[in-house]
């Protein structure tokens, strides 16, 4: 399989960062769906706080998450292949992205492998998606999100889509993850909006009015 990052690449490489914010299930689901899709080589980096959240939110150990990725890199290894633009990738997603990680990316602080890989992704004009997790936002958060957007990154808070009438938490997660993967031209089966004319959908009076 040829990658859009170069004809000689045998697979599409996707970098996945897990930082210290709530929502680590988004990252593990990205890894699961990328593997099921095939033709995608995943590269995982987890921060120490990300590891803590994996244990707290999912009841999993570090190795269980490592097993979902094709390659795992140390958070402190700023000499890893991900730290160089010559290592071609389809891009990077940070899921979840803490406000600390967002700030470091916004200000070019390549002080660990997640922020360095994100910096490389931006400088090489590749796709960077930050699934930011915090609420409410303060002015520093908003300014940092603006800075990342101006540099070409995508700020993607994992907001639930209730218009799809999700029956389970997994339905909510899969809808968001499918949308994120599409930024990297990775298309997987999942819930998508089909329009109000879909059979079985009730049209409330005045639907569509502003």
Automatic annotation (TrEMBL):
Reaction(s) this enzyme catalyzes, per UniProt: dimethylallyl phosphate + FMNH2 = prenylated FMNH2 + phosphate
Recorded superkingdom: Bacteria
Sequence positions that bind FMN: 20-22, 47, 98-101, 133
Keywords noted in UniProt: Flavoprotein, FMN, Prenyltransferase, Transferase
Enzyme class, broadest EC rank: transferase
Protein name: Flavin prenyltransferase UbiX
Domain Flavoprotein as annotated: residue spans: 12-181
The family this protein is said to belong to: Belongs to the UbiX/PAD1 family.
Protein's UniProt keywords contain Transferase: yes
InterPro entries for this protein: Flavin_trans-like (IPR036551), Flavoprotein (IPR003382), UbiX-like (IPR004507)
Binding site for dimethylallyl phosphate: 163, 179
Gene3D superfamilies attached to this UniProt entry: Flavin prenyltransferase-like
Biological role: Flavin prenyltransferase that catalyzes the synthesis of the prenylated FMN cofactor (prenyl-FMN) for 4-hydroxy-3-polyprenylbenzoic acid decarboxylase UbiD. The prenyltransferase is metal-independent and links a dimethylallyl moiety from dimethylallyl monophosphate (DMAP) to the flavin N5 and C6 atoms of FMN.
Enzyme Commission (EC) number: 2.5.1.129
């Amino acid at each position: 399989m040829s990658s859009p990052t170069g004809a000689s690449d045998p697979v599409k490489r996707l970098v996945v960062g897990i930082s210290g914010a709530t929502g680590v299930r988004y990252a593990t689901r990205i890894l699961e769906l990328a593997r099921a899709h095939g033709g995608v080589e995943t590269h995982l980096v987890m921060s120490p706080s990300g590891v803590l959240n994996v244990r707290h939110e999912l009841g999993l150990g570090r190795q269980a998450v490592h097993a979902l990725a094709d390659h795992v890199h140390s958070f402190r290894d700023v000499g890893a292949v991900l730290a160089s633009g010559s290592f071609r990738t389809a891009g990077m997603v940070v899921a979840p992205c803490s406000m600390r990680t967002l700030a470091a990316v916004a200000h070019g602080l390549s002080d660990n492998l997640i922020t360095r890989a994100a910096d490389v992704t931006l400088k090489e004009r590749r796709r960077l998606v930050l699934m930011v997790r915090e609420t409410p936002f303060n002015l520093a958060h908003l300014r940092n999100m603006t800075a990342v957007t101006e540099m070409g990154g995508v700020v993607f808070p994992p907001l639930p889509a209730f218009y799809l009438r999700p029956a389970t938490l997994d339905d909510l997660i899969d809808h968001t993850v499918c949308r994120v993967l599409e930024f990297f031209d990775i298309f997987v089966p999942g819930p998508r909006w089909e329009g109000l004319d879909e059979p079985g959908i009730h049209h409330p009076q005045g639907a569509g009015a502003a």
